[in-house]
Amino acid sequence: MPVKNRLAEMHGAITKWRRHLHMHPELMYDVEETAGFVVDRLKEFGMDEITPGIGKTGVVAVIKGRQDTQGRVVGLRADMDALPIHEATGLEYASTVSGKMHACGHDGHTSMLLGAAQYLAETRNFDGTVVLIFQPAEEGGAGGLAMCQDGLMQRWGIQEVYGMHNMPGLPVGEFAIRPGALLASSDEFEIVVTGKGGHAAAPHDAVDTTLVASHIVVSLQSVVSRTVDPIKRVVLTVGTFETDSVASNVIAHTVRLRGTVRTLDPEYREIAEERVRRIAEDTASAFGASAEMTWTPGYPVTVNTEAETGYAAEAAEAVSGRVNDSTDPIMPSEDFAYMLEERPGAYIFIGNGDTAMCHHPEYNFDDDAIPAGCSWFAELVERRLPVA
Q: How far apart are the first and last CA of the chain?
């Protein structure tokens, strides 16, 4: 791969950073040690500005190019948080914190952006300003939204923004991207079914919430099969089914269901909410029970803008020569979507090779992807902010 020579030289050092972060995972917004590590490295590189505490525990840094003739500003983002998973890799640099693990490669994302930061600070071979965004709480905490609400885009004058995520199954060093919807939205629902508890020997004296809730679970599948346009993508999953009794001879008084709805089409978020509520309430009523549904909006659809997707793909082509610029969208969600709602930009996948999937206890970021990932960030900057 024609990665940048300087970044190839730095591969060993960046790998050490990544493995250090892997050994010390932190969750959600509680990433003080990780953010401190990032700040220390950025100080060593000679940033023009470093601001911690954005979006609670995020870090923003600024690198100015050798010239600034047009006032152009490009943002580059990496996420820092880990997952509440017990690591099962057996690696010598495995997590030292019980029940916490970098099982999604955010340690790799942070390290690659740090590597690109060092290169860009050394060379400054661009015309304009680069804003580095190290974000907390991607895993369910909406840290991207928190940083935007703290004025990220306006305060630093970001005009376009880019992010990257590793992809198991894609060969190391290869890239994949597409314009438009790339990752799904993800909303959560909770349904509490209330009936009349009783003895299993006398079901006629009870209102069996287990039976009612089971009918609701089955009927919810019609939201996708009979409400959604067949060429659209919506995934509805009931993930938990909890009764208020664990006894085999008791009819439960209440049942609690929890699930998610994911879609690549924003219009279906509202449609799905209405249908889930109606199915739950009407099905319960038909059996003499009641149902209360709570809907919690989650991350929006991650939508790459057309022009910026092209720029990202061109940089990937220059780095690796191997980029799929029309990859299929996938149904996980990503809070980089909030940044793309505020500014044009693009999100790209980099290959992680034949590894366990993200969020698996045996997942591990492939350090061989580091030179290509760093080079993509740097190449993108030099192409978007060329020196005349």
A: 27
Taking residue 332's Cβ as centre, other Cβ atoms within 10 Å add up to: 14
The reported pLDDT for the residue numbered 156 is 98
Place of tokens 């990544």: 18
Average pLDDT over residues 343-353: 98
Phi, psi of 377 (to 5 degrees): -55, -50
Helix or strand run (H / E) with residue 302: strand 302-304
The Cα 326–Cα 86 span in angstroms is 35
Residue 239 parent element (H or E): strand 234-243
Q: Are 92 and 180 in contact (CB under 8 A)?
A: no
Q: What is the pTM of this model?
A: 0.93
What value does the mean pLDDT take over residues 211-238? 94
Angstrom distance (rounded) from CA 210 to CA 213? 5
Q: Which residue has the tokens 């109606």?
A: 278
Alpha-carbon Rg for the chain, nearest whole angstrom, is: 24
Q: CA–CA separation, 302 vs 309, rounded Å?
A: 12
User: How much is the pLDDT for 203?
Assistant: 95
Look at residue 5 in the predicted model and tell me its pLDDT. Answer: 86
Q: What is the DSSP string of 24-66?
A: S--BTT--HHHHHHHHHHHHHHT-SEEEEEETTTEEEEEEE-S
Those residues with Cβ within 8 angstroms of residue 290's Cβ, 6 or more apart along the chain or in another chain: 193, 194, 195, 281, 284
Relative to beta strand 129-135, strand 73-79 is: parallel
Measured distance CA(30)–CA(32) in Å, rounded: 6
Gap between the Cα atoms of 369 and 388, Å rounded: 31
